[in-house]
Amino acid sequence: MLKNAFRATVEHHRYSDLGLPSVGVTIAVNEDELVLRIRDRGGGMPRALLDKIFDYHFSSNNLANEPSLLSYTDFENHFHDQLVTHDSTNRMSGYGFGVPTSRAYCEYLNGSLTIETMYGIGSDVYVRVGLLTSENRIVRL
Fold it and tell me: Any stretches that span the bilayer, and where are they (predicted)?
């Protein structure tokens, strides 16, 4: 989720003369859970995308030169080309696995992943992970 926030911030402000705004991370722990808030100014996303971003193979990065075109990864026709012959040999995004896998891990650890977005401004991601307790000691995962 941090990588997504950094990428969105850099892409949204790439032509700005003011520099890049920071990506903020807030960490809180209480008796029941660990909460991370990741706040960026990466332009956010349209509300219509919020349901799709939790689908495997959906990416907003498949067509980087056309930010208005968002799609699912095409495994039958172009996935090998995206993996092997893409312009960037060290590509870390665009496969549509990061967000849904992050949510799956959060849910496995008795938590949740929620995203609040303001299109044109940025997004807040809340990662909640349950804590295991053992004899009045908190065991952090």
Answer: none
Question: Do the domain assignments include residue 87?
Answer: yes
**75 lies in some domain:** yes
**Strands 122-130 vs 33-40: parallel, antiparallel or unpaired:** antiparallel
What sign for the dihedral angle of Cα 51, 96, 124, 46? negative
Q: Which residues contact 57 (CB under 8 A, 6 or more apart)?
A: 72, 73, 75, 95, 96, 97
In a domain, 135, yes or no: no
Rounded to whole angstroms, how far apart are CA atoms 102 and 95?
14
Please give the biggest Cα pair distance in the chain. Answer: 55
Residue 20 domain boundaries = 1-130
CATH (domain of 82): 3.30.565.10
d(CA 6, CA 43): 11
Looking at per-residue pLDDT, the higher value among 133 and 72 belongs to: 133
Please give the tally of structural domains in the chain.
1
| Global pTM value | 0.74
Domain membership of residue 137 (yes or no) is no
What pLDDT digit, counting tens, does each position of 26-71 carry? Answer: 999 988 899 999 999 999 998 888 888 888 888 876 544 444 444 5
